[in-house]
Amino acid sequence: NAGVMQNPRHLVRRRGQEARLRCSPMKGHSHVYWYRQLPEEGLKFMVYLQKENIIDESGMPKERFSAEFPKEGPSILRIQQVVRGDSAAYFCASSPARDRNEKLFFGSGTQLSVL
Amino acid sequence: DAKTTQPTSMDCAEGRAANLPCNHSTISGNEYVYWYRQIHSQGPQYIIHGLKNNETNEMASLIITEDRKSSTLILPHATLRDTAVYYCIVERGANSKLTFGKGITLSVRP
Known about the structure:
The complex is a heterodimer. In chain A, the strands form 2 sheets. In chain A, strands 2, 4, 5, 6, 9, 10 and 11 form a 7-stranded mixed beta sheet that branches. Chain A has a 4-stranded antiparallel beta sheet with strand order 1-3-8-7, with no helix packed on it. By secondary structure, chain A is an all-beta fold. Chain A has no helices and 11 strands. Chain A is globular. Chain A starts with a strand and ends with a strand. By secondary structure, chain B is an all-beta fold. Chain B contains no helices and 9 strands. The interface between A and B is medium-sized, with 28 and 23 residues.
């Protein structure tokens, strides 16, 4: 049973370009969470999605960032017109249900570097 | 903000038990205590969780005080590969997201 798969593992973009980060949840999991970790800082929640729905985007920057989790295919975190401050590790997690007793499984992350 | 308080760091000798404390004095009755860890540059890894009773799995034991205001994660025989940042989390929002604090950096020395 494969774990949470994130790709690419490393992504380099120049300022102004777009970054697309992909996350395939574990088999059977329909809930996806995105977190960002800036250098030397803790993990910050960004967005929580269920298939075709955004449940909680309270941690998403108001501009340039968007996320989706379509009926088919991986979840996508999209960053438009990247700036150097977007350089960070982006982690995706999945769970099978929306329940306080359910643990999250994390992927290995995508390291985004903006030149 | 996270509702837990953890020491910034601690160290432990390889092969000995590592006892990681966590204070969560404002925990509500239906909130679980979760422990995750993050080894350098990797994604967080689930360790264990509990509500009231002590819990044990293949990785660790979780001891929760009777008043639930604090807990201790025990790694019974620490190895060098256990060096990581350990997060104690009790806040689970209505949408089941985890709120990570600063965690405690455990350094296991040879």
